[in-house]
Amino acid sequence: MSQESADFSASRKTGRSRVLAGAARGWRIIRSNHLATAGFLIVLGLVFVAIFAPFLAPYDPSAQDLDSTLAPPSADHPLGTDNTGRDILSRIIFGTRYALAIALVVVTLETLIGVSLGLIAGYYKGRVDETVMRGLDVLVSIPPLLLAMVIVTTFGINIWNAMLAIGIVYIPMMSRTVRSSALSIREETYVQAAEGLGYDSKRVMLKHILPNAVPPIVVLGTTDVAYALIDVATLSFLGLGIQPPKPSWGAMANAAQEYILVTPWPIVFPTIAIAIAVLGFNLLGMGLREVLLYGGDYDEVVE
């Protein structure tokens, strides 16, 4: 075996070991708190449903049966059917895919932009901080849902613009959180030592400040998934999010509202699905907050 092959193999093993060690540490953190454990199990169940939706759903979510419209829950349709005879259970299962995918994309967008702006503002301070924060104040001054609706209606009603709109709404909170952490971490001795050694600002921010700002980022990102799920459902309910025939919990509730007094299950079950998903991520976020921010296991400092 050549030296290059040996080095590559060694680096792969090292990378795999770090991933496994990180996963084990993450599980210890989650397991140390009952709220985090309960939330994690709910989220894990949602992810399982989303991944294996084609195998779990008893019917094609778009298949219509006009002979079985608004049918009550039964052995054939455990959660009943909607006004076009589509199986509600199948649509909820496939709706999990869209809900989680959109929420995770939204939080990823929020994290990438929000963390970057927060680091820059907190590290450079002064005019840079003032400029960034005043720009974010403009976004904060507009009601979040209204801002999302304006963006979607301006750029077009589709799933991508919905994700962009919700992601933009969440950026200010992430930026403020990271900025607050960066301002305090910047005064630590190890950061000043790194600057004294001549490290450039990018290296100081990414190697010394960002790793120590991870706990609040993780907590906020987790709870924001729950809020994103609500906003996605709200936009879909208003006809500005996921468009038919794609299954969406919010759109399902919207289509069923006129039948609520006659057949409540088409609106009740999608609403329960939203509540369970939001509960799972909220519990996970609350548990992680207790562990990571208020005296839990996460007490390491990356110098």
Topology:
Blueprint: H1 3-31, H2 34-51, H3 53-56, H4 88-124, H5 126-140, H6 144-155, H7 159-185, H8 189-196, H9 201-209, H10 214-237, H11 249-256, H12 265-293
Protein name: ABC transporter permease
InterPro entries: BP-dependent_transpt_permease, MetI-like, MetI-like_sf, OppC_N
Membrane topology: Multi-pass membrane protein
Percent of residues in β-strands: under 5%
Question: What class would the helix/strand composition place it in?
Answer: mainly alpha
Q: Give the C-level CATH assignment.
A: Mainly Alpha
Q: Given the structure, what is the number of helices?
A: 12
Keywords: Cell membrane, Membrane, Transmembrane, Transmembrane helix, Transport
Family: Belongs to the binding-protein-dependent transport system permease family.
Membrane topology: Multi-pass membrane protein
Subcellular location: Cell membrane
Features:
MetI-like_sf, membrane, mainly alpha, MetI-like, elongated, MetI-like fold, disordered C terminus, transmembrane helix, OppC_N
